Amino acid sequence: MNHRDPLTNQIDIARKWTNSLLADISDDDLYWSPRSGLHTAAWIIGHITWAQWGLIAVRCLQRDHLPEPYTTLFGRGTTPSPDASTYPPAAHLRSEFARVHEAIKPLIRNMTDAQLDAPLGGPPHPLLLTARDAVSMVAMHETFHAGQLGLLRRLMGREAMR
Predict the structure, then answer these.
(1) Residue 96 and residue 110: Cα distance in Å, rounded?
(2) Cα–Cα distance between 4 and 7 in angstroms, integer?
(3) Are 108 and 56 in contact (CB under 8 A)?
(4) I need a labelling partner for 119 at 20 to 30 A (CA). Which of 38, 97, 112, 129 fits?
């Protein structure tokens, strides 16, 4: 067993929870919001996709960013839109959400201790100093947004948790 497996296991558990919350949300409902400017499920999954790739591939391993429109639509500080035409199609968002999740796990498993302990690349982060911090944050970040999905579910008239 790779000593990074507990980190990727945490990421998998977070994803199982998020996927359970998304399982019965239709493509149309991905774009629903109780009012303008609040998160939609589409924005949440796009943002998680952007953040996971950005933290692990870009900031830890100095790889290229996801292609646009990910940073423009889903980056930190962006404002969600309930207009589905603003975003890539729901099928694309869902497939990228799954693809990036699977792509970051081997990147994490293959990081050396020196890479994990190296300063986080890019501009200073308010909480994260090292690549190890970023890897630890990936699952926590997703569960934070899974809580938002639970609230959206409740506002849609569904059970908050599945």
Answers:
(1) 22
(2) 5
(3) yes
(4) 97
Q: How far apart are CA 11 and CA 8, in angstroms?
A: 5
Reported as a single tens digit per residue, the pLDDT across 66-79 is: 998 999 999 999 99
Give the pLDDT confidence score for residue 162 in this predicted structure: 65
Phi-psi region of 77 (alpha: psi -120 to 50; beta: other; left: phi over 0): left
User: Which residues fall within 8 angstroms of residue 141, CB to CB, at 6 or more apart?
Assistant: 48, 51, 52, 55
Distance separating alpha carbons of residues 19 and 146, to the nearest angstrom: 9
Q: Is residue 162 domain-resident?
A: no
Closest CA to 69 of 103, 52, 39, 93: 93
Backbone Cα Rg of the chain: 16
Q: How far apart are CA 66 and CA 96, in angstroms?
A: 10
Buried b (16+ CB within 10 A) or exposed e, 59-86: bbbeeeebeeebeebbbeebebbbebee
| CATH number of the CATH domain containing 109 | 1.20.120.450
CA distance 42 to 122: 26
pTM of the model as a whole? 0.95
Neighbouring CB atoms inside 10 A of 24's CB total 12
